[in-house]
Amino acid sequence: MVSKQIGDRPWRGVADEFMERLQQHQRYLFHVAYRLTGNAEDAKDLTQETLWQAHRKSNKYVYEKSLKAWLRTLMTNRFRDQKRKKSLNFVTLDDAFIQSDPSPATAMKSVEEQVEQKILLERIKEEIQELPDIYRRVIILRHYHGYSYTEISKELDIPEGTVKTQLFRSRKMLKERLSRKI
């Protein structure tokens, strides 16, 4: 097999060059992953998974755009997907807006404040259940499951603009309903 020469360097495949470009951003990706996961081992895993995914999806990368930004987006989406999958196994829809474990801020509140907060969360949950179906679905996907506008659009098979409109209207409706009852 004869290798082509460009100057003193043998010609390499586009995939090898792309992999080298990916490796140049490995340290940056690790720092982003560490901020997302808060743990070095999980950050290493997320970094490697992101690099592997980027290599597999190299044909989808638009070379005029920032590779760093594209990698960060891949990583963030992968992290969200992993987090969503883990949370779906442990949380039921009924518990969507009620915290099962008190946060550190909650522990500092008085018992009366904690009870008031729980009552308010119950009211919010009830009001969400009373919303028309089109509004309830987007609220739950956005605020409970953490879906992006694009993900909600794909999940419900509606345009992204419609998702934004429905979220705006549902939040406004919730605010009006809650202000009447409080």
From TrEMBL:
Domain (RNA polymerase sigma factor 70 region 4 type): residue spans on this chain: 122-174
UniProt record similarity statement: Belongs to the sigma-70 factor family. ECF subfamily.
Gene Ontology annotations of biological process type: DNA-templated transcription initiation
NCBIfam families the record matches: sigma70-ECF (TIGR02937)
UniProt KW keywords: Sigma factor, Transcription, Transcription regulation
Annotated organism of origin: Paenactinomyces guangxiensis
PANTHER family: RNA POLYMERASE ECF-TYPE SIGMA FACTO (PTHR43133), RNA POLYMERASE SIGMA FACTOR (PTHR43133:SF51)
GO terms, molecular function: DNA binding; sigma factor activity
InterPro entries in the record: RNA_pol_sigma-70-like (IPR039425), RNA_pol_sigma-70_dom (IPR014284), RNA_pol_sigma70_r2 (IPR007627), RNA_pol_sigma70_r4_t2 (IPR013249), RNA_pol_sigma_r2 (IPR013325), RNA_pol_sigma_r3/r4-like (IPR013324), WH-like_DNA-bd_sf (IPR036388)
UniProt KW Transcription keyword: yes
Keyword Transcription: yes
RNA polymerase sigma-70 region domain sequence ranges: 23-87
Pfam family, one: Sigma70_r2
Protein name (record): RNA polymerase sigma factor
